[in-house]
Design brief:
Order of helices and strands: HHEEHHEEHEHH
Shape: globular
Number of helices: 7
Largest sheet: 3 strands, antiparallel
Strand order of the largest sheet: 2-1-4
Mean pLDDT: 87
Structural class: alpha+beta
Low-confidence stretches: 199-211
Length: 211
């Protein structure tokens, strides 16, 4: 009941409230990005969503406009060189992810769930197919989240199999109380700046958060 009906209603209400309450912060960040470097305020990228359907994820732009497009951060030569001054702060605090509130309103994402894989991150997608949760659904059949269980248990430091395993654990334990735990765990992780590694994720050198 929760996963099929209640969760989506809560996500929509939270996203709508967040968009209204955080609108001054949005405007401030947009102004800072425009003053810091030329180019668009937002960054769009193809991600694998529910049932592996591709959608355009929305973020605040954190890199220079001459950065090669659709190239994972770990494949860039000296990735830090491409990050803007404002972008460095946004990535450190995860504020660059806030525009995904719009993706939540559209029903493409949830507040809590497995982070959407890159469009070409077939290794993560394949691993997630091995894990099933509530109702027998695989991780890839869930609506991806703004944050999730894996995000507060290592984030960029996780290797792909472990990340998929944690996503599978979320799928099995998905409930209102577990989502609340993930939500407040995320706030704590952001406050501590935990798990953010520029240019790679875990020992396998795969980075989920391509900018």
């Amino acid at each position: 009941m929760y996963a099929r009906f209640v969760k989506r209603g809560i996500d929509f209400c939270l996203a709508l409230a967040g968009l209204i309450i955080l609108s001054p912060l949005f405007l401030g960040i947009m102004l800072a990005i425009r003053l810091d470097s030329p180019g668009p305020v937002f960054f769009r990228q193809r991600r694998a969503g529910r049932d592996k359907a591709l959608f355009q994820i929305l973020k605040f732009r954190t890199m220079r406009i001459d950065t090669p497009g659709d190239v994972p951060t770990h494949l860039l030569k000296d990735p830090a060189r491409h990050i803007t001054r404002v972008g460095r702060f946004l990535r450190k605090t995860s504020l660059d992810e806030l525009p995904q509130i719009w993706n939540i309103l559209l029903g493409e994402m949830a507040v809590i769930g497995p982070r959407p894989a890159l469009w070409n991150q077939t290794d993560l997608v394949k691993e997630r197919d091995k894990h099933r949760g509530v109702g027998g659904l695989t991780v890839n059949q869930l609506r991806p989240g703004l944050t999730g269980w894996a995000q507060i248990n290592g984030r960029d430091e996780l290797e792909i199999p472990l990340k998929a395993q944690l996503d599978g654990e979320y799928a099995r334990r998905m409930s209102f109380s577990f989502d609340v735990r993930c939500f407040f765990g995320t706030l704590l992780s952001i406050f501590r700046h935990e798990g953010v590694v520029e240019g790679g994720t875990g020992a396998m050198g795969i980075k989920e958060e391509l900018k």
